[in-house]
Amino acid sequence: MSTTSYIGRKYSEGKIFPVEDVLVVEEPLKITINKVPFTITMRTPGSENELVRGLLFSENVYSDSLTDPILSVIEKNENGFITGIDVSIPKEKIGKGIEIARNIISVSSCGICGKSELDTTPMNEKKIVHTEKLNPERIGRMFEKMNAAQKTFKQSGGSHAAAAFTLDSELLTLQEDIGRHNAVDKVIGSLLLQRQLQKAKCMVVSGRISYEIVNKCFAAGIPFLAAVSAPSSWAVDLAEKVGITLLAFCRGDKFTAYSGMERVELMVDDTRVKENQSPPKQA
Q1: Which residue range forms the structural domain that includes residue 179?
Q2: Within 13 Å and on the Cβ side, how many CA atoms surround 108?
Q3: How far apart are the first and last CA of the chain?
Q4: CB-based contacts of 266: which residues, under 8 Å, 6+ apart?
Q5: Each residue's pLDDT tens digit in the chain (283 positions)?
Q6: How far apart are CA 51 and CA 152, in angstroms?
Q7: 110 catalytically annotated
Q8: Domain count, the chain
Q9: Same domain for 98 and 152?
Q10: Shared domain check, 171 and 258
Q11: Beta-ladder partners of 88
């Protein structure tokens, strides 16, 4: 259950009266690797396997995309929510990401919080190389499909969403969570578990774009990243560096490209002024 009811006291026009609101559930999830503590992440219960699989993959702790690690539930709370998972990984398959230890709780709003140091160098320092172009008319369709499937948000108004699509705007998976980065990890984990990671070409998110979300998108090899809200400066710099086309402020048929605009297929005819070309002067 991703939502729950709470009673609040609403003030309006000088009066106070009780209201019953639906809120997004937030619970801690303790993750151990080979029974050694790795992190505690605050998240919305549900899709725990997807969250852990995606988190370890995007942080280069377990980067094998064809074989899944063994995940075991080790703890539940009194409400039946899973609060502890142990991941069994052969030592030779543990990646360098394990060296960037987390020494405090990773909060819902910031998955990067809790790391004892920051790895600002993308894995292998490589770019995503691809020749595909994205039809801009399909961007709006992707957001329409994501919005239509956001059940938790419709109930509570308090969850973020992330979704993966093909370039033909086919929805591969959608995940919701109180944390933006958790939703992205759940999407990556879902793609891995379904063996559909290679089909994913565009990641769509409901909030703003941070450095960490770009880094996760890069780790998954997804070349297009689009969001409803703004990107950060670090997010734009990293997207440009690693070859990700970053689109923000996506509203209807409008968006702003901050990197990789050359990979968006512009539909320009002879009667319109081409991009970067000044209009003819009036006589």
Answers
A1: 137-263
A2: 17
A3: 67
A4: 136, 275
A5: 688 888 888 878 888 888 888 888 889 999 999 999 999 999 999 999 999 999 999 999 999 999 999 999 999 999 899 999 999 999 999 998 887 655 444 555 555 455 544 454 454 458 898 888 999 999 999 999 999 998 888 888 888 999 999 999 999 999 999 999 999 999 999 999 999 999 999 999 998 899 999 999 999 999 999 999 999 999 999 999 999 999 999 988 889 999 999 999 875 543 343 444 444 444 4
A6: 17
A7: yes
A8: 2
A9: no
A10: yes
A11: 70
Q: Is the dihedral of CA 166, 167, 171, 175 positive or negative?
A: positive
- Contact (Cβ atoms closer than 8 angstroms) between residue 88 and residue 38: no
Burial label, 282 (beta-carbon count in 10 A; 0-12, 13-18, 19+) = exposed
- Residues 145 and 237 reside in one and the same domain: yes
Task: Based on the fold, state whether residues 156 and 240 are members of the same structural domain.
Answer: yes
Nearest to 50 by CA among 159, 182, 148: 182
Q: If you ran DSSP here, which 8-state letter would residue 106 be given? A: B
- Tokens found for residue 234: 């670090």
Of the residues 110, 202, 217, 250, only one is catalytic, namely 110
Distance from C-alpha of 130 to C-alpha of 153, rounded to nearest angstrom: 34
